[in-house]
Amino acid sequence: QIWVPGLRMLLLGAVLLLLALPSHGQETIEGPEVLLPVPKGACAGWMAGIPGHPGHNGTPGRDGRDGTPGEKGEKGDPGFAGPKGDTGETGVTGVEGSRGFPGIPGRKGEPGESAYVYRSAFSVGLETRVTIPNIPIRFTKIFYNQQNHYDDTTGKFYCNIPGLYYFSYHITVYLKDVKVSLYKKDKAMLFTYDQFQDKNVDQASGSVLLYLEKGDQVWLQVYGDGENNGVYADNVHDSTFTGFLLYHDIE
C-alpha cells in the first residue's frame, strides 16, 4: 500500500504533461512583444533565444522592363534665338514669271523748264566762182536759213542766241591754190590751205566749235593775194558754208 500514493502522483504528472502539449504537436512561447514558434521536437521546458542582428543587404536586382509611354506633355516656352548662320550659296535663277498688270499712273510731275526750243542754223552755197580776197565770201545759194541769222548780202552769220555753235565749210578748188580762213569778230579762228593739182579738182574743208555772244559775227574769206583764190563752184561742184547752235547759254 505504500507505493500507491507514488503511483498516483506519477499518473497525475503524466496527465498534466499531456494537457500541456499543443493539440497539433507545436508549442509557442509568448513574450512581451513577439510570439516565437517552438521548434518541432523541443522539450517541454524550451525557451526562445535572444533575436539576432539584421542581415546584410542583398545584391541589386536586374533592371525592370520599360514602362509604357506617358501622355504628351504641354508645349514649352520658345527658346532663345540662336546665332546667325553663314550665308548660303546663291541659288539657281528661277524661270521668268509672267508679265504683271500695268501699274497705277504716278502723280503729275513738277513743271519743267520752258518747252521753247532755241533754234539758230544756216547752210548756204556758192553760186559763182568770182570771189574777192580779204573780204567775206558771199554764199548766195540758200539751203537753209529759216531764222534769217545769215545775211546773204554781206556773207556773214549774226549771232542772236548766245551759246555754243558748230561751223563747217567745204570748198571746191580749181585752177588755183586756195587759202581760206574762218573769222569771228575780225579775228581769224581757222586756216585752210589746198594746193591745186593741174588738170584736177580738189576739195578743202574745215570745222570748228565756237562760243558766241549775242551780236558776234562769223564768216569765211580768202586771204592773201589773188594767186590763192581758187574757190570754185558750178552746176556739178559746190562750195558750202554751214553753222548751227548746239547749246544755248542758260545764264
Describe the structure.
- The protein has 251 residues and is mainly β.
- It has a domain at 121-248: Jelly Rolls (Sandwich), CATH 2.60.120.
- Helix content is 7%, strand content 32%.
- Strands 3, 4, 5, 6, 7, 8, 9, 10, 11 and 12 form a ten-stranded antiparallel β-sheet that branches. Strands 1-2 form a two-stranded antiparallel sheet.
- It starts with a helix and ends with a strand.
- The relative contact order is 0.15.
- It is found in: Secreted.
- Residues 115-251 form the C1q domain.
- It comes from Balaenoptera physalus.
**Structural class assignment:** mainly beta
Tally of DSSP helical segments: 1
Helix coverage percent: under 10%
Shape assignment: rod-shaped
Topology summary:
Layout: H1 3-20, E1 28-30, E2 35-37, E3 121-125, E4 141-144, E5 150-151, E6 156-158, E7 163-184, E8 187-194, E9 202-212, E10 217-222, E11 229-232, E12 240-248
Domain C1q: 115-251
Organism: Balaenoptera physalus
Signal peptide: 1-25
Give a quick summary of the entry.
The chain has 251 residues and is mostly beta strands. 7% of the residues lie in helices and 32% in strands.
Key terms:
251 residues, Jelly Rolls, two-stranded antiparallel sheet, mainly beta, ten-stranded antiparallel β-sheet
